[in-house]
Amino acid sequence: RSGAKIVNRTFWVSLLAGVGSFYYVTQKDRTPGPQLPHDPEKKTVVVLGSGWGATSFLNTLDTTEYNVVVISPRNFFLFTPLLPSVAVGTLSPRSILQPTRYVTRHKTRAVKVIEAEAQSIDPVNKTVSFIDNSAIQGKVSSTTIPYDYLVYAVGAEVQTFGIPGVKENACFMKELHDAEKMQRRFLDCLESAAFPGQSEEEIERLLHMVVVGGGPTGVELSGELHDFLEEDLKSWYPELAGKIKITLVEALPSVLPMFSKRLIDYTMSTFKESKIDILTQTMVKEVKEQSVTLAMPDKSIVEMPCGMVVWAAGNKGLKITQDLMAKLPTAQANRRGISIDEYMQMNGTDGTIFAIGDCTASSHAPTAQVAQQQGSYLARAFAQRVKRDRLQDQLQELERSAAMTLHDDERKKVVEEAESVKRQLAKFKIRPFSYSHQGTLAYIGSDKAIADLPFLNGSFASGGLLTYYFWRSAYISTLFSLRNRTLVATDWLRTKVFGRDVSREW
Ligand code: FAD
Ligand code: NAI
């Protein structure tokens, strides 16, 4: 009995300690202390963007040595890997957002956060011009500021290839508002199909969901739509659920080209079981209000009626990126994006512009993993850069005083000191970026995920339920804050217990 008592007491003490420390950490996080003000003696780093690259840079940067200004039209970080889960209501939108100020308020020196869209960059005069393009504007809504260093991390936009009707009629899956729009449209299709007197043909059209692009975004979204159908819609729309059809259209011969053959086959067979149709070697030529026009493998043109089209056909550079590249035509001719060196420096500039993430054209895929590693690498390199700048300043100062010193003995001492600083500078090297691939993961629906993980000198491919739990734990640990981890975990629990919400927002 006394043993049971001890176990009982230990349990309650540990529970209390756990709750207490959780409360302490969260409250400490909520009430950041005072910060150092901007220092006119320090160099100014302007960061464009608040996505993977920029946030990772801000998280790692030691702001003691720099004045930092962040400019982004979005005043938050969006955890894109879980965006398809938001589109079907598995997760609440706010669970995968982190306000940029939550990051910057915890830095040693105050960081200015400006919600604005950069319009142009002048690499010669080292300035950025930006505008407030939000719905509510004050009397001043555009300005230009100088920078000493520019961290360019504006990402990319959805590639439409100029295909007619895509912008007007399709939903995208890139930003938070895209996921919310898709959710509304999907539920609207269901309600319209349930309208009394609807013909069978119209019901079939309204309930046909077409996903364009067999890359990871299209595959994950198709899997999430399938889960929504199986786990919730069958209960709340029993007369319609059996008629919902999901078609994934891909121009290439297979989906998920970045995964191993075994995992591609596994995905194809899982989709077959889930009754998700995959049309490969099929190119979407036009998106109309109620249909998509397809060029089939046999070159025939088919018009496929549908209620919703989700466009997930890849990325292209933003206009501001193209404009910036056009200012440096000889060094920046890559159509995929900004060419950078191994220190993230934009080619053709004087070492003051650094570009990271999806806006760049490097040997790495445009992924969050790459942008995150580039961001934290760059912040570490900035810490080294401060040391180098300091040595350079010290050298200049010593050379100046050597020139001004009249006594030989004293001059000799100063020259020796300058030589020692020179030697330190010669040895000083900022290490180049080296990417460490942690593997590729994707959720394919039906509680199954696939993973290509680096293992020894090769790779390890796995798929199924265990991989799904691995996928979940990998993403929950990648989320930047305890707050987001808690919100996502509770959303998963909420969905398991109560299911997804099927009410449509206005
Ligand atoms: P982003 O994260 O897109 O950030 C760009 C930032 O720049 C944004 O804050 C934007 O508001 C801002 N910006 C835009 N224009 C301007 C301007 N003019 N001035 C100032 N700021 C501007 N990758 C993975 O590795 N694993 C995954 O599981 C994964 N899942 C994904 C799922 C989805 C649905 C999507 C869409 C992408 C996914 N990716 C994934 C890819 C990943 O999201 C991108 O590679 C990553 O976001 C790139 O980071 P970034 O910082 O370059 O750009
Ligand atoms: P993507 O570029 O990987 O795939 C787009 C697909 O659309 C391509 O396979 C292309 O052939 C196809 N396509 C283009 N035009 C078409 C048309 N007209 N008709 C039919 N098919 C067409 O794009 P995605 O999936 O948005 O991914 C973008 C980046 O984000 C990639 O680097 C990807 O690796 C990364 N990402 C990674 C994820 C993960 O690791 N789980 C999840 C989502 C994205």
UniProtKB/TrEMBL annotation:
Pfam families: NDH2_C (PF22366), Pyr_redox_2 (PF07992). It is an enzyme of class 1 (oxidoreductase). Keywords: Coiled coil, FAD, Flavoprotein, NAD, Oxidoreductase, Transit peptide. It catalyses: a ubiquinone + NADH + H(+) = a ubiquinol + NAD(+); a quinone + NADH + H(+) = a quinol + NAD(+). GO terms for cellular component: mitochondrion. Residues 437-501 form the External alternative NADH-ubiquinone oxidoreductase-like C-terminal domain. Its EC number is 1.6.5.9. Belongs to the NADH dehydrogenase family. This is NADH:ubiquinone reductase (non-electrogenic). It comes from Mycena belliarum.
